[in-house]
Amino acid sequence: MEQRKFVVPEVVVGKNVMELIGRYLGHFGSRKTMIVADKNILKLNWFQNIINNLMKKDIEYIIFDEVSENPRDYEAMLGAELFLAEDCDSIVAVGGGSPMDCAKCISIVCTNGGHILDYVGVDQIRLPGPPLICIPSTAGTAADVSQFAIILDSKIHIKKAIISKKVVPDLALIDTIPLLTMDTYLTACTGMDALTHAIEAYVSNAASPLTDVHALKAIELISKALPNAVSSNKEEVMEDMLMGSLHAGFAFSNASLGAVHALAHSLGGVLDLPHGQCNSILLEHVIDLNFEYAQDRYKDIAVAVGCEVEGLSSEEIKACLIDVISELREKLSIPEKLSEKINPELAEELYVNAINDPCMVTNPKNLSYKEVKGIYEKIFKE
Ligand SMILES: [Fe+2]
């Protein structure tokens, strides 16, 4: 058996678990916490419940909400400066992937000093940060359980990955309530991001029996629940989305990702587009190129999304899987192509950044420059 490592944080799931925040910060001995949050959730009732809970437990707090959709290096630096100036001793990230990634970066800099970009790459962080608790508001990113933090190098518009056990949060409080307050397009895009995490983890060169079980479960749950999550917004459907995203997070945090994320990171960095939307548009094209390099794995995925594969040829299984994915994208009203034309000045940057992205390393097929260019040409408006 090959040697494999599997890292996950402490996880508490269920309705109203976010109200455990004060008790857990008390366990960590925290007196003053920094809340890193999306601006658009500050007025929601459930966010106010978090604040009330802190006040009840006499824990002081400050709110840092200077976080863009694709968080920038300078935002993390600003947050770290504020954390130290305000003498905080813990961080609570509330929202989607952006505040959670930014919170992870703040925790690195406020403990290790220097600039956040000094820590890009694998295992570059020396000291663990202050206690970090994540309360996700979407079922998709799984930054609340992962070893990844993605940050935009704002000078060159490249999204950089920081991969380390030291950015795994200390605790994830995963609650269904915030999911019920998100708009449907965000639910659609973040759900497709979670499905992509599971698919890429399952076909990854670094997959293992420990990650496979989570990846397949995630694919089953998300492919069934996602259309209902967008149309009905019911609590039991959101529970399936929450569990699907969590399983996908356990899988990809330990098996890494592939070409969909490599191309999506490049798109998100150069054009500042939403991460989930980029993945949704790219997924079917990457499966088309990858399929023959991981046929048995994609066959399992096809079964998990509901294809009847008995008696089908490989080509037919591939066609069924791609059809299911593209029909799902259409049901979610996510477009087939981006609304802009490819800008020739930025095109070269887009291709090169994708090829150099660390997620490309674990893709089952080594994609050439021509193939990467070919995929991008399919997803831009003609
Ligand atoms: Fe992702």
TrEMBL record:
The answer, when asked if NAD is one of the entry's keywords, is yes
Record domain Alcohol dehydrogenase iron-type/glycerol dehydrogenase GldA: where: 10-176
Q: What is the lineage of its organism?
A: Bacteria, Bacillati, Bacillota, Clostridia, Peptostreptococcales
Keyword list (alphabetical) reads:
NAD, Oxidoreductase
- Family classification: Belongs to the iron-containing alcohol dehydrogenase family.
Residues forming the Fe-containing alcohol dehydrogenase-like C-terminal domain are: 187-379
Query: Origin organism of this chain?
Result: Acetoanaerobium noterae
GO MF term list: alcohol dehydrogenase (NAD+) activity; metal ion binding
> Is NAD tagged as a keyword?
yes
Q: Note the Pfam families from the entry.
A: ADH_Fe_C (PF25137), Fe-ADH (PF00465)
Its recorded name reads Alcohol dehydrogenase, class IV
Record's InterPro entries? ADH_Fe/GldA, ADH_Fe_C, ADH_Fe_CS, Alcohol_dehydrogenase_Fe
